[in-house]
Amino acid sequence: MDSPRKSKAQVRMPRSPLVRLTHDRRIVLLALLAGLPGVVVSLGFLFLGDVGPRTQWLGATALVLAWVIATLALRERVVRPLQTLANMLAALREGDFSIRARVPEAEANDALSLTYHEINALESILREQRIGAVEATETLRKVLESVAVALFAFDERQCLKLVNRAGEELLGQPADRLLERTATQLRLADALTGVTPRTLELSYPGGQGRWELRRSIVRQEGERLQLLVLSDLSRALREEERQAWKRIIRVLSHEINNSLAPIKSISGSLRSLLEREARPDDFDEDVGKGLRVIQSRAEALGRFMATYAKLARLPEPELSPVNVGALVRRVTGLETRLPVEIKGGPDVDIQADPDQLEQVLINLIRNGVDASLEDGHQDWDKVTVHWSVEGGRLTLYVEDEGPGVSETTNLFVPFYTTKPGGSGIGLALSRQIIEGHGGSLELENRPNAPRGARARLEVPLDPEAG
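Structure (tokenized):
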């Protein structure tokens, strides 16, 4: 049986003895071979000429010595520059930029001198880059140490790779004891998932309370890291809470007084009727009217408090794929008072809570129609909806042809309304829903249009992507 043939990858050609020699020895051997014919011819003339034996041997010795010395000089001339270049490149590889090649001005234009010049230029560029990198790193380190927010960077195994001083103070341990520990061990695993930005309740040796979480992706030496930024919101939230309580108390006082004032007045009138010895003929009718007013105001106050409870009990969004076009078409089909034109946008799915997002669109489209009908609509009046996608975020616009927005300060204040019979809860609830998805909601006058307002809704395509 024939032996199996070897593949091309398995066949090894025998290396010549010259290839197996080192570069230095090849230079010497090639130099000797190059001078060998001249030496042989010179020796032939020397021994065949009419000279004595002593002169022949002295001449031959001098000739061979000159041959060997010239060969060694050639080797030195070829090998030494290569050794110099190798040493310079090794120094650059090790980050040592103190070695530079000295080039005589008389040899400034030959090939070797040009090579030295290029190596020196490369050394200068790398040294400047190293200095810039060191300065940038030192600046970044000082910035990280001086900021009041806690920074943590985790690798793909959720092991801590970077922490600043604020992070050390929050966890109550030095960096050398925190690095390489997992997010689970540090009780930060929940911060690596979910919607951002959002608020967390944290309790650590270095601080407790509410913290704002932001998350992003960074790279360090080619390694992908997940960066967590925790900002202490306690002081800012306390001040904001005081202002919010003032606004809420002001609104609650207004609404409650509006209901209690007629109740108090009517109940006083009914009491005075009951205290009369002789009751009037229309006593029963007056009592019935008074009780109906009291009942009506009590029911209105109950609805008001129920609306407030709805705002306070908004649940966390349950994310699932939602097709934007299908959602818009479904919501616009619910509005029959005015035409709602869908100008459209890209066919895109987002991760969102479909029920909450639908409620936001219903509120915005209803507000747009109400505004367009406010001054008595024309046949051409309509509400338009369109959207776009850029940078991983969806931006959706709802535009109306009403009188526009005259005052924007209180638009998103709960229970503030300019519409008769309005609850003042729609825009506040809508913004809370959108912010729960990591987005934003703004209301402004339409640009480049004589009248009308525009609601601008922006949410990430995937809130959990950070």
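The two ends are 66 Å apart (CA to CA). Residues 439 and 459 are 4 Å apart (CA to CA).
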